[in-house]
Amino acid sequence: MTAVPARVPVLIAGGGPSGLAAALELGRRGIEVLVVEPRTSLDPLRPRAKTTSVRTMEHLRRWGLADRLRALAPLPVEHAQDVVFCTGLFGHEITRFREAFGLTTERRDEFAEPGQQAPQPLVEQLLRDAVAELASVTVLTGWRAVEVTDGPTEARAVLADPDGGQHEVTADWLLGCDGSSGVTRRAIGARYAGSSGTLPNVSITFRSPQLEERELCALGVHYWVIGAERGGLMGRLDLDGTWWAIVQGVDAETEQVDPVRLVQSLAGAEIDVEVLATDPWSARMLLVDRYRGQRVFLVGDAAHLNPPWGGHGFNTCVGDAVNLGWKLAAVLHGWAPECLLDSYEAERRPVAERTIDAAGAQEPFLAPSFATGDLDAETAEGAALRAALARALQVKDPEFHSLGLVLGYDYPDSPVVVPDGLPVPEPELVAFRPSAHPGARLPHAWLPDGRSLYDLLGEELTLLRLGRAVSAEAFTTAAARHDVPLRVLDLDHVPGLRESCGADLVLVRPDQHVAWRGSLPVDAEAVLAGVLGAQVASAASVSGA
């Protein structure tokens, strides 16, 4: 019989990507955490999300896991980086979107890590293994939260063990990472609002030796097929013959579905197909009306459901966990007041809303929506038709190139971001323009010795000193007085960093977002109070103007 503590500082209901990421953020800081997860094993034949974004890879780098994921990933970035639109795997290439999803083999100034294609079960297993290395985190697989009660000073949960026994646990804080069918959302009275996609879909995992033996029309990481009996997309899961496919407009509940025939239609040939798994699904675009109760927070899919177009859903879940994790640890360690936690919803809900809108905007432009003719005709008319379709398909570009969203999301209106009074750049979807305005992700830079700037940031707050004649003493004194962990980085020697950040001093949070920037003289006490949730006395006192 597993011994379950009667009380824990943090209980996490759900050990998927969001729950594991939150456990990592907390456990790495020594916070005692109990995670309950119903699934005892992860199904490799149901890959679910396949895109680990540039931003999530940066978090994995911070956790020391980026290289581990790349070593485990069955599809190396070097294999392919482009999304190809075609008439079939053996037909004509229509157009391609290069370096989709941040996939690149070259080092880029804009980010510390390129994207990575990897099936979600593999990423989850990596996170499970990493969490298991943390002495302060206990993960109970086969367990689930069946009842949650929120309260002003604690949360109570009834946990069901694999044998049907029930155990009551009290937690100072409870994180609801239990997805759309969990109990935590109802416990705080939160409700989804939104819509579902217009087309039902079916996912198919399969193997095909003939697909490996024949020459494909092009090399790609994803193939979108236009003009087939059923529109859809497909791609490799690995380099050993395992593939995935998503066939659009297939309602498995109302029609006879032959997955072999569906794959053959997408491929454009009667290849042999060994079906490994099938999953019917519909895209959902849902967002809760609140992210927290009193002691209960919603994280990841419990708070929002994203359509898969663009590969943002799983990555948005990780972003939630990172945001809440460092804040909750700061409160539990006593160097931040509980009001810091009020900023979680204020920061993350607008990001989820914008992400859902961006992904949902691609729903009308799925493969079946594009008018087609004889796209494979070896005639001038066929070539002209393919060229015209290539131009029309440029509407899909934001689905594959969205660094403006992935790296450019910010928190300028957050109650724990101290504004500097300067104009805030307008949000963009495709183009990413680095900015150090308060609330933005700190602009990335490679240092002269080859290291990433991000590798030097502290686990908690970091003050960048970028001006040659600027002192950090006011901040170090204020931080010491209030036991706030602060690392000071003297980087005035790094070419161009002062100009890209736009200030002599930049205060960076644990999640690599800018909390404040300015110059001396400045009221450092007021700045620290502002970024930790206390009321800022006046903008002038913290602007450094």
Structure, briefly:
The chain has helices spanning 17-27, 54-62, 66-72, 120-132, 184-187, 209-213, 259-267, 313-333, 343-360, 380-392, 397-400, 403-406, 473-481, 497-501, 524-531, 539-543; strands at 7-13, 33-37, 51-52, 83-86, 93-97, 116-117, 137-141, 144-149, 155-160, 166-176, 192-207, 222-225, 232-236, 242-248, 274-288, 296-298, 304-305, 461-465, 486-490, 505-508, 514-518.
Write the layout of secondary structure elements.
Layout: E1 7-13, H1 17-27, E2 33-37, E3 51-52, H2 54-62, H3 66-72, E4 83-86, E5 93-97, E6 116-117, H4 120-132, E7 137-141, E8 144-149, E9 155-160, E10 166-176, H5 184-187, E11 192-207, H6 209-213, E12 222-225, E13 232-236, E14 242-248, H7 259-267, E15 274-288, E16 296-298, E17 304-305, H8 313-333, H9 343-360, H10 380-392, H11 397-400, H12 403-406, E18 461-465, H13 473-481, E19 486-490, H14 497-501, E20 505-508, E21 514-518, H15 524-531, H16 539-543
Parallel strand pairs: 1-2, 1-10, 2-7, 4-12, 10-16, 18-19
Antiparallel strand pairs: 3-6, 4-5, 8-9, 9-10, 11-14, 11-15, 12-13, 13-14, 15-17, 18-20, 20-21
Helix pairs in contact: 1-4, 1-8, 8-9
